[in-house]
Amino acid sequence: MTPPNLASPPAEEAPETNDPPKPVSGILEKAEAEKKWVPAIVLEQIPVSSRPQGHTKSPIPFFHILERLKTTKREGWRRFGIAHGESISDHMYRMSIMTMFAPPSLKSRVDMQKCMKMALVHDMAELLVGDITPADGVLKPEKSRRESITMDYLCEELLGNVDGGAQGRELREAWQEYEDSQTLESKFVHDIDKVELLLQMVDYERSKDGKVDLGEFTYVATRLLLPEVKEWSEQILAERDEYWQSLGMLPPHEQLSSKNIALQDEYYGGPAVNGKR
């Protein structure tokens, strides 16, 4: 943080969020999508001096590797020329705040602490796996396998001896509950994950003054389950419509190809539940 007695650079000269030195962190090359992936592939690329030491009684090595969540980008935006976009931790932070605002009809039925924890943990494996999107050619079972063995590494090798392994087990259980998506809490956090994406879509379209159409991402609104969260989605999409109309343009709603719809359905686990927007 700049000390108050030092002048800050003009806004137009200020570095963008998540600028280099790691601007390509998280990009998945085709060869990587096709090969048998294990965490060691990524860990071996980390300089020995920075590589986390496993099986210690201290959580410090785990704290260090969490830095990768701050520098690894959310991948889907790159296809639209947004090179300096949000990081994985940016996404999870806003999600965790959003869970705190669960409407009363939902808040009375869920464990709010569990929801916040799940929001902060659900993409943790991406610090090694990267942000795999439906367009990357990695099937859902393979994506889940990569993330599962990464969580095993984090929770067992890095945290297995910390406080008798209790913290690691707790993180692993929260992540698995999200993955299984059987409890009301996990369904809520899955919905929040999609609504945060819709928020970011609108944020980017506004920041680019309508020069970027991210309408492809409106499809996730068809995958929401809980009526309380659907209401938020409807408000966000109405805001988007109003924004584009204020520019004298019809709100773009990109029609996905049948191939892209199939990829989205496979990624999110089945056909849309809410019809197309």
What does this structure look like?
The protein has 277 residues and is mainly alpha-helical. It has helices at 30-34, 39-43, 60-65, 67-71, 88-99, 104-107, 112-121, 126-129, 140-158, 166-180, 184-207, 227-246, 258-268. The termini are far apart. Residues 2-27 have low confidence and may be disordered. It is 51% helix and 0% strand.
Please name the defining characteristics of this protein:
277 residues; mainly alpha
- Tally of DSSP helical segments: 13
Biggest β-sheet description: none
Measured distance between first and last alpha carbons: 43 Å
The radius of gyration is 20 Å
Molecular shape = globular
Average the pLDDT over all residues and give the rounded result: 86
Q: What pattern of helices and strands is seen along the backbone? A: HHHHHHHHHHHHH
Tell me the strand percentage band. Answer: under 5%
Low-pLDDT sequence parts: 2-27
Number of strands: 0
Quaternary class:
single chain
Secondary structure class reads mainly alpha
Helix content: 40-55%
Write the layout of secondary structure elements.
Elements: H1 30-34, H2 39-43, H3 60-65, H4 67-71, H5 88-99, H6 104-107, H7 112-121, H8 126-129, H9 140-158, H10 166-180, H11 184-207, H12 227-246, H13 258-268
Briefly summarize what is shown.
The protein is mostly helical.
